[in-house]
Amino acid sequence: MNDSRKAEYEVQTAENGAAAVNPEGSAGESPDFGIDATPDAASGATGPSAALESLRAENGELKDKLLRTLAEMENLRRRTEREVAEAKTYGVTSLARDMLTFADNLRRALASVPADADEQADGSWKGLVEGIKVTERDFLSRLGKHGVKKLEPLGAKFDPNIHEALFEVPNDKAPTGTIVEVVEDGYAIGDRVLRPAKVGVSRGGPKAINENTAK
Fold it and tell me: Considering the entire predicted model, what is its pTM?
């Protein structure tokens, strides 16, 4: 076989091989097997990730709402407990204030008895005085069961929050502002003043020592 015949044979063989691979004659086109090689970023990669982030955000919001609700319920519980406790402590305030007049009358009755007459009393008179004393102690004890206590201001420093000054007493021995006389007893219920004590305070004595002054 000469060279020209050999070249024609090789060309024919190559064309036959190409025809076998691509019968339609489009040897330059890639075969299409129905697969899109271009990735869909919106539906393939980003879609599930965005849904997951949305669920996480929703879960965070629900958790935050739950915590807020629990905090509000706890505050409500504490406030209710405080209100119930205050109602128990201060619920008898009006009645107790009205009953203080009775305590005042018992104290006046005892104060009207001369000291020597009380010591020398006998028989029915002594029994009457002792009965008034027992009644006063019992009445104050019953008030105490409801949180009412009698203030003891004598000798204490005047405090405008719990005392009412009616007059000043010249006194060079007691520090100025010291309560030296009690005109009417004061009472408190819980942490509140039921009635301030009406008192007389000293004037002209040495300066009262400031408790906050460092020694």
Answer: 0.58
